[in-house]
Amino acid sequence: MRKFHATRLPLFYPTGTAYFSKIRPQRMKAKEFLQKKLLKQLIFRHYKNMPPEERTPEWEEVIGWLRKNRLSVFPYSFTARYDPAKIELRLDEKAQRFYTIYQGHRLYYRDGENARRARRYFNSVFLEQDPHSPHRYLSGDFDVEEGDVVVDVGAAEGNFSLDVVERAGKIYLFEPDPAWQEALRLTFAPWKEKVEIIPKMVGAVTDDTHVALDDFFRERRPSDFIKIDVDGAEAEVLKGMEDLLNEKRIRKIALCTYHRQEDAGRFARHLEKLGYHVSFSHGYMIFRKRLRPPYLRRGVLKAVLP
Length: 306
Prior knowledge:
By secondary structure, this protein is α/β, with parallel strands linked by helices. It contains ten helices and twelve strands.
């Protein structure tokens, strides 16, 4: 799913636009309220039944927040700092696309049609990359270094790559959505000599619409840092880069693990067997898609070769 990044629509609503047109707003709000209330009860029940030794400080932090606040995909106080209405949105008249300023540079949106939707999208981009967010890709001890070859799998609007473009030596942006491809061209026009947009999905095989990273980097310098955020298809991306991993040709990996309940554990075990040191971004996300106990999910796995 690439029409919209799964975490950049309101996460407690279905992601398809058809849903919004078929259900009246008041009915949707009532259903949403009941779903959130039920999920909150399930989380509290699960926590109550956990052995005391499993009630980590991170779990305690989330439970404490939920007792005082509404259910949220990011159950932390930093979310209060973000408001779509405060997003400074501008329109590029020539390109007819909205953009905002991110890290001092223009970050373009996929179109120029709906300002409210664009503000909500950009607000979620800023929110999920807050220093305290479980979804943040980078941290002080886990970052892109000067001259690194960077691979952005599931680039969407490209905020991750824009964050590191000044120090990266080369960036490959993988994005199959034509609307986002044009937005990326506009955003990275000042660095077009070192930023390459690949209009394909990354997966386990290479064909007309997909590319496996093993094939892509067979005759290229491999990545120093790869970020993977592909709405639940992360396992397919890993299958397509087995040679790179086995040959230890990738130094750092930022891998999203919140799309599926089991991903954090299975990806960590797999990468540790290959010799990577594995850690996670701080905290948990409550991502309701495919949700089941223990309900809280790790956001981003960080893998580093010793």
